[in-house]
Amino acid sequence: KNDDNINPKDKTIIVIGAGISGLAASKKLKEIGFNVIVLEAQDKVGGRLKTNRSLGIAFDEGASWIHGIDGNPITSLAQEAGMTTFETIDDQAESCYDIGDYSNDKIKITHNSIESEADYVLVTVPLGVLKANTIQFIPALPTVKQTAIQKIGMNCVNKFILTWNTPFWDNTQYIVYTPEIKDKFNYFVNVNKFNPTANALMTFAYADYARLTETMTDAQIINEIMVHLKDIYGNNIPNPTNILRTKWQNNENSFGAYSYTAVGEHTNVDYFSTAHGAYLSGLREADKIIALL
Questions:
Q1: I need a labelling partner for 22 at 20 to 30 A (CA). Which of 166, 231, 237, 244 fits?
Q2: What InterPro entries does the database record attribute to this sequence (predicted)?
Q3: What is the CATH number assigned to the segment(s) 155-245?
């Protein structure tokens, strides 16, 4: 600590990004008494946490699962919010990487000629944004930080939800399919298990095939998915009435959906690619700033 007499109210902290990591950090810092300014590129908070209800059902475009009920802080948040949870198994994604202040001077943030000034800055943008170098750091980040950013991978997963007038599929939570391309619509989530009136299936595309889907039309996507469903249920099943989809790779606010670790000392990140990992990282970095005072 630099000075035990420092009052947090005299310090301004800018948090870049209002995803779950940035929100967790901002809340904790605000509770301590800091002046907190949150800068967000989108017209909403939550980052890659977004629920689309345009079809009358909940379609989580980003993180959908709480990984591990016991000890997961997101479980407590969900319970406090009165949300209903369902037991499931899956492996979805959300992560946020952060880097803090590395000088003793006031820090200036400039975007579209608008300048903000703070004592500390916490950057919680997605890894894909850092890898794309859309944020210019002056002076440049230390080499160890730059190396870590490049070594940690950023991949893509896209989701697709399709609705029908009447369900024709099995009344099971998952419908598994083994395609020639392993990352191509290899299983379907029966949304009716969570919402009995949804009449919907959700499926996924991963990695290179996920990126390819972003160049395809809705009609092309439906045709590809129906090939798989007809292999399972026969040719007489109807086409869906609606489709919703994500395009995370070409989203300029993320450039991908989730991170994955590579080999090396720079990549020892707990709970990578999960929402609770992002949440905990926000709390961790808030604690680091608090410890500086």
A1: 244
A2: Amino_oxidase, FAD/NAD-bd_sf, Flavin_monoamine_oxidase
A3: 3.90.660.10
